[in-house]
Amino acid sequence: MSASPSGAGSTGNESNGFEFVTMLAKELSAGKIDLPSFPDVAQRVRKALLDAEVSAEKIVRIVGAEPALAARLLQLANSAAIIGSGKKITDLRVAIARIGLNLVRSTSIAFAMSQLTKSEDLRAAREPLRVLWQRSALVAAMASVLAKRLSKINPDSAALAGILHGIGKLYILVNAVKHPALFADAQAYRGIEELWHANIAKALLENWEMPADVVAAVHLHEDLEYLHDGDIDLTDVLLIANLMAAYREHPEDIELNLQGVPAARRFRLDGEGFKKLLAESSTEIGALRAALGG
Q1: What is the distance between the alpha carbons of residues 100 and 94, in angstroms, rounded to a whole number?
Q2: pLDDT digits over 249-263, tens only?
């Protein structure tokens, strides 16, 4: 994969952006996109789950070594989104079995994102990191509910895609902090983020060996003209969940923004349907979002 550094010119501030964009282009071309600043526990969970035969004991050991993450998983397993009014549990092994490995992966990534907001090295980016983390948890919750209620897509896969939908923006953010002039130039920064985050996310998630449908969904979730044959797929779910998050507080505005969107037609979702979905699922969305840490 390659990209041209000429994207810096589109920001209107080539002096601040050119060096940074050149670095992005080089890393994309070399296939070396990674997040070295990502907390180790999330990477260990991710690598362990690459093994389809991984034992429950191994996951429990990894998660148990990070008490705050273990507590988050227990909270999720006991949340209304998972058990409704069922029996509460306190055993981590039972919690992991209850929520499943996809939600373990999603929760560990959400936890890692929340930990980045506490990093001294990223102090200058603390507020945008917090906003990105909370938006990721919201989109994950909405994607899970949308998948469960209106499609045949696995809700846990949808939650994973939701948590990861901003990973390209996260990569740009944690690296832009090392370029103070660029980071201070909001227009230049937004231009670079808009132009680069989707391809960076694709390269990063491929490097992490994430499932192909998750990679595709994250890469294409802002493509409102996305077309394909067949039933609703994960990209459709993430695309609509992202729109739901954007208009959650202004549902009166979504009708116009759903018009002409092929994914919305697949869901047969209009403005009234959107408002109904939000009303019926608000408790579930809130419970899952809170359990993920958002």
Answers
A1: 10
A2: 888 888 888 888 999
Retrieve residue 131's tokens. Answer: 């906003």
Whose tokens are 């000429």? That residue is 6
Q: Is the per-residue pLDDT at 244 higher than 80?
A: yes
pLDDT score at 10: 45
**What pLDDT does 86 receive?**
66
Q: H/E/C letters for each residue in the chain?
A: CCCCHHHHHHHCCHHHHHHHHHHHHHHHHHCCCCCCCCCHHHHHHHHHCCCCCCCHHHHHHHHHCCHHHHHHHHHHHCCHHHHCCCCCCCCHHHHHHHHCHHHHHHHHHHHHHHHHCCCHHHHHHHHHHHHHHHHHHHHHHHHHHHHHHHCCCCHHHHHHHHHHCCHHHHHHHHHHCCCHHHHHCHHHHHHHHHHHHHHHHHHHHHHCCCCHHHHHHHHHCCCCCCCCCCCCCHHHHHHHHHHHHHHCCCHHHHHHHHCCCHHHHHHCCCHHHHHHHHHHHHHHHHHHHHHHCC
Measured CA to CA, the distance from residue 111 to residue 41 in angstroms comes to 9
Report d(CA 181, CA 253) in Å as an integer: 36
pLDDT of residue 35: 83
pLDDT at 294: 67
Question: 62-66, 141-145, 179-183, 201-205 — which is least confidently predicted?
Answer: 179-183
At residue 75, the pLDDT reads: 87
Nearest Cα neighbor of 156 from 55, 234, 47 is: 234
Residue whose C-alpha is closest to residue 115's, from 69, 162, 183, 178: 69
Phi, psi (deg, nearest 5) at residue 259: -65, 130
In the numeric block, the tokens 């959650």 are attached to 248
Could you give the percent of the chain with pLDDT greater than 70?
A: 93
